[in-house]
Specification:
Helix content is 36%, strand content 4%. Helix 2 packs across helix 3. The protein starts with a strand and ends with a strand. The protein is mainly alpha-helical.
Amino acid sequence: MIFDDISGLAVPLVGVNAFATACPLIDKMVVVNEEFIALAILRLVEMEKAVVEGAGATGVAAVLDGLLPEIEWNKRVCWGGEGGRVGYIESG
């Protein structure tokens, strides 16, 4: 199964106004592997019964990939996931 949900994250360039607005609010940026995004989508469906698109699952994917070591597994965190355009392509 290949997920076709991460195209919303593949923007070639962030707009000047969007960057200026977001920059003071960002503490850390990481690059998340597409395989971990797909894994996060599946984990959220299976364990949390939450259907989210790839962009909404990237925060969970970053934690699963170990990119955010400051987040401890026994602590509560707030995560904002989103649904929307969720689809997949069956691969033979």
